[in-house]
Request: fold
Amino acid sequence: MWGRSVDEDCAYLIAEGRKYLVKFDEDLVEKAFRFCVEAHKHDVRASGEPYYTHPAQVAHIVMREIPLDDISVVAALLHDVVEDTQVSVRDIRAEYGSEVAEIVDGATKISDVFKSREITQAESYRKLLLSLVKDVRVMLIKFADRLHNMRTIESLPPERQERMARETLDIYAPFAHRFGLGSIKWELEDLSFKVLQRTIYDDIKRQLNSTREEREDYIEKFSKPIAERLNEHGIAFEINGRPKHLYSIYTKTVLRNKTLDELYDLFAIRVIIDTNDNNDCFFVYGLISEIYTPVPERFKNFISVPKKNGYQSLHTTVIGTDGKRVEVQIRTRAMHDYAERGVAAHFRYKAQSGATASWIDSKDLEEWATWVRDIFESAGDEAPKQLMESFRLNLYQDEIYVFTPKGDLRILPRGATPIDFAFDIHSAVGARCVGAKVNGRIVPLHHHLDTGDQVEILTSRNQTPHRDWERHVVTHKAKTHIRRILNEERRRHVAEGRDIWQKRAKKVGLHINEDDLERLAYQLKYESRSDFYLALGTGSLSSEQASTMILELMRPGHEHEAAHEPPTSTDEHRDAARERAEGIYIVGDNIPTTKVLFTYAHCCNPVPGDEIIGVVTIGSGIRVHRANCHNVSDIGDKIKDRLIDVRWSKHQRGEFFAGIKITGDDRPGMLNDITSAVNSINNTNIRSLTIDAYDSIFEGNLTVYVDDIGHLQRIFDKLYHIKGVRSVERLER
Ligand code: MN
Reply:
């Protein structure tokens, strides 16, 4: 039927659409059909058929089984193009509008989630699916997609068959049931059952076949008086023998240790009446019970009290001739359609009976979403409470579902980053994370995770949390841990700093009480005494520098110089600056001075050995830049009179750091290779590391503490030798 020619297939699909859909845009469906053929023209199914026959048949299933609107049909035709071809969601939006684009996007995401993952927590996956679905039509298309894939499963290799069947039975079938898609649910179950338990499947099928004729004769005789009675009362009806679902027979026999003969519903009929009045079902029940004696405890009224998925029907079991028990189901045509087609049937009826509605508009869809939600909310104990919550949360979009590399599900608040994820796994993982891979690609630590992402955390023993991590986390757990670790670290540094200071003070004969030290620290522009200790403890201030500066401040008369007051002219400041500090000297003065107040510019972070230039600043002495720093050359003319020629003195103190940009192949292990290359050089610490990856190109920004340019050069050499590294450059800043 399918695959004869593109034109014939297209014509057939449109003819079917006329049959099943209330109204649809034939041109639009034809356009999507041809678009799909073109997009998939190089693809072939496992069966050898041209690929387009798959989306075409999915669209066909949507029309027949879940007939809703042409948007769903168009989306069904396009459901695989983003995943399998060059076409992007943006292309689809441009061509078919955002509604279709969003449905296709949702369907693609769901495929991504299932790809290459072992399903270990079925309920979690069902939750995840719901969270992904903004438009219920996404789910309907996935059901149709799965159904067609299951119908054609035999062309796949056995392991894939088994995996797909298991997934279908665990996830799609129960989900279809919840959406009220009765016939799809049964078919999915039977197709999975056939793959998973082939021997038992064949056995049940054989037993059913061997007794079929006898059973059919019996049912025919049984139905005859019922049909006569209904005709007498002028009721339009249809009587069916119940279709036999092998999987349900399996669960009722093999799993409960019964034989086929013990099953009531092998002898079963369904009476479908064409009426708008539900009470007619009770009337028909009355008629039947006049013919056959009912078994009272087998009467079930799902009309007054529908099942949780909305199913309605009367069920009864009566005693037929020869004492055989026969199950009878009585329902209206609308109830029957609902039982088979669920939510879609509901809307179809609404559309047909409504005054304006031969067309489903967005308001209807909204109502539908509400209605589906009501189903979940009224599901009571049957649905896990969390399931309902996840459905609601999805509407507010405040939770995401992400995976560990092993496929375990983690639930995090929206906006969560790899740091949150790492702390969620374990506080030790969080504290040591240096990077993360999302879906196999390296991302920066502040990257926002999304539902369906698979996250792998990369750790380093040398890593500790950074202060700015606090800004990049949303979970309480991550926040408290980071704060605790940072505070501990700070306390440790402050205590070390206090030790260093006390030893130094003793050595140079300084006796300062704590209040005075607090004031002096403040004059040195530290927030407090403990910040002063902290600077000593972390090594950003050396004990020699500290004692020199303190002694300076304590010199008689200095107090009036008010440390915060800027010198009034450049010359005056230059004179003052010459007096202090160490590490650089001013060319021409020829005295390697430990008396010049200076700072290293943060824009270019010079390290000993770099060519440098000084800029006399107002308030903070000489600022030392790299000679080629853009900040200086950009405004060089304007500050000409403030430029000063400086050189490194022989001995250096303090900490220097340099930024390095690395690009290369985004391959597994790259990040770890970089961190271990750096760590392999003695005394090298990583200050920060951010990473990004684009189209399999890795880009990392690394900041390392170095002693001098030679040290930096050794790091460069190591980095160059990492496999897949294409370039290593010093960053401007
Ligand atoms: Mn597909």
User: Anything to note?
Assistant: The pocket of manganese (II) ion is lined by residues 54, 79-80, 145 (CB under 6 Å).
